[in-house]
Amino acid sequence: MIEGMPAPRLVAFDLDDTLAPSKSPLDPQMLETFASLLEVVPVAVISGGNFQQFEQQLVTPLRKRPGLRLEDLHLMPTCGTRYYAWEQDWTLQYAEDLTEDEKARALAAVEAQATAAGYWESETWGPILEDRGSQITFSALGQSAPVDVKKRWDPTGAKKDDLRRLVQAELPDLEVRSGGSTSIDITRKGIDKAYGMQRLAELTGVALADMLFVGDRLDPEGNDYPVKALGVPTHAVTGWEDTDAFLRQLIPTLRTA
């Protein structure tokens, strides 16, 4: 736990490269640790993926574990531009969708800038561009590219950070952030993970100062950074193994808090 910080009343996470490898299900060990955390404190997951990705990576495996209170799990896909709560099933609470004009300009800008910079690849696994309603996502190698291939494409994150800056300059009225290992996410201006966390505080009654956010992209270029800039207590990780080790230290302190 963060030194000097009281026990959090809610723990929030990024998904890709924080709880799981990019677009992959949680490792069984991480799933067990996550379920143990959910038994002692409400949990939120706020990430760039769409709801279907959340279902595949997290929700479906969790539902196979009996006795969990899904009412204590808050799902905020597409960088918090959407929020789902459990009410006998997952129910959409809000969606900050892009307009058709915003979508068209975002799609055109990211394709043009990626092509000009040499980041538009010919060999891909699934679509490079995806309209997620409240978010446009660029995945350099496609939505279903193998994790090891994505790591080789941009091991330092320099390519996607460069592309983020290029696209942001062309879309000053929208929000452009580096997302997963090969992706950037485009949302409405000011509708980012900080917005999602603020809405989460309103909807749960848990103050931002009483939350803890865990993510792998808390650097200024990353899509987790707005949460840090908001003043929410944060913990930076480098992958799911790092998150698992941190939670194994955190959970016992929450049980006795």
From TrEMBL:
Coiled coil: none
GO molecular function, one term: hydrolase activity
Primary enzyme class: isomerase
UniProt-listed InterPro entries: HAD-like_sf (IPR036412), HAD-SF_hydro_IIB (IPR006379), HAD_sf (IPR023214), PMM (IPR005002), PMM_cap (IPR043169)
Keywords in alphabetical order: Cytoplasm, Hydrolase, Isomerase, Magnesium, Metal-binding
Subunit annotation: Homodimer.
NCBIfam families per record: HAD-SF-IIB
Protein name: phosphomannomutase
The organism of origin for this protein: Curtobacterium herbarum
